[in-house]
Recover the amino acids of this structure.
């Protein structure tokens, strides 16, 4: 009896407390924003947690700049940070441009796609120093902008 009352109360609470916000939101389906705001680059590796299971760890790399200039270009020096408690010297020694993860912050309702042989954002990728990687950001209304990303130097 007590469980059925609990289930009924829970069901009523779920029905009443749903989040169905329908008003007060800016319409994004016609947005023409196609901006790449910033990028991050990180190294990821697996460590064993206290229970002996693999757990993903990550360390952001230091970029000399991470925002595009007026020509939609991001040129930066990528520096591997100093070792720390979790980012040990052994892990730091394995960092190379051959297996890094790049992610981007873009405009709301937009999407980003690699052009040519540029690696897909958010996946382990190999990057070359001095090579131009192009990405197309497409706004919700179809407007497009192309951004170029160049790693000028890799400092360990």
């Amino acid at each position: 009896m007590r469980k059925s009352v609990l289930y009924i109360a829970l069901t009523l609470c779920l029905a009443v407390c749903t989040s169905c916000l329908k008003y007060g939101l800016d319409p994004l389906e016609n947005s023409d924003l196609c901006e790449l705001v910033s990028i991050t680059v990180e190294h990821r590796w697996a460590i064993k947690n206290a229970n002996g299971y693999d757990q993903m760890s990550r360390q952001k790399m230091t970029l000399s700049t991470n925002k595009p200039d007026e020509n939609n270009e991001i040129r930066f020096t990528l520096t591997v940070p100093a070792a720390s408690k979790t980012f040990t010297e052994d892990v730091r020694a394995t960092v190379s441009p051959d297996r890094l993860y790049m992610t981007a912050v873009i405009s709301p309702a937009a999407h980003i796609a690699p052009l040519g042989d540029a690696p897909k954002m958010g996946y382990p990728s190999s990057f070359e120093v001095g090579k131009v990687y192009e990405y197309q950001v497409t706004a919700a209304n179809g407007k497009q902008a192309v951004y170029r990303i160049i790693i000028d130097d890799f400092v360990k």
Q: What stands out?
A: The radius of gyration is 22 Å. The longest helix spans residues 2-16. The helical segments are 2-16, 89-93.
